[in-house]
Amino acid sequence: MQIIKTVDTEEILRLEEEEGSSISIKKSEGKAQVLSIFVQKDDRREGIGSTLLFAAENILYDRGIRSVTVDFSDMIKGMEAFFENAGYIIEEGAPIISVNMKELLTSVTARKLLVNEDDNLKFVPLSELMVEQLEALMDGMASYSVNLGASDIARFIQEASGVVFDKENRPQAFILCSDGDESIHVDFLAGGKSANPKTIVAAIRGMMEYVINEGGARTFETLTLIGCNKKINRLLEHVLKKGIEPDIIGHTLYAERIITSKHDLEDTDIDEDEDEDMEDEWQREIRKAPMQRNILWKMPWHRISGDALGSDEQTVERKTSAGRASSDKIAFEKYEELTEGLTMDNTVRITEENLSDFNTYLPADVYKNMPRPFYRGLAVKDGEDILAAIVWEYKNIEDEEETKAEIIWLDGEDKESLETVIEEFTNEIRSEETEESYFEFDELPAKQKKVLLDAGFSVKDGESRDIVMRVSQIASFPFASKAPLPYIRNIGTLEDKQFKRGITNSLFHKRKGLMEDILFLPKGWFDNEISSCVVTDSKVTGLLLLHKNEEEELYVDLLFSVGAEYKIDIVNLIRFSVSKAMEKYGPDTKVIIRRHSAETEALAKTLFPEKEGEKVVLGERRED
Question: Under a CB-based contact definition with an 8 Å cutoff, are residues 535 and 578 in contact?
Answer without folding.
Answer: no
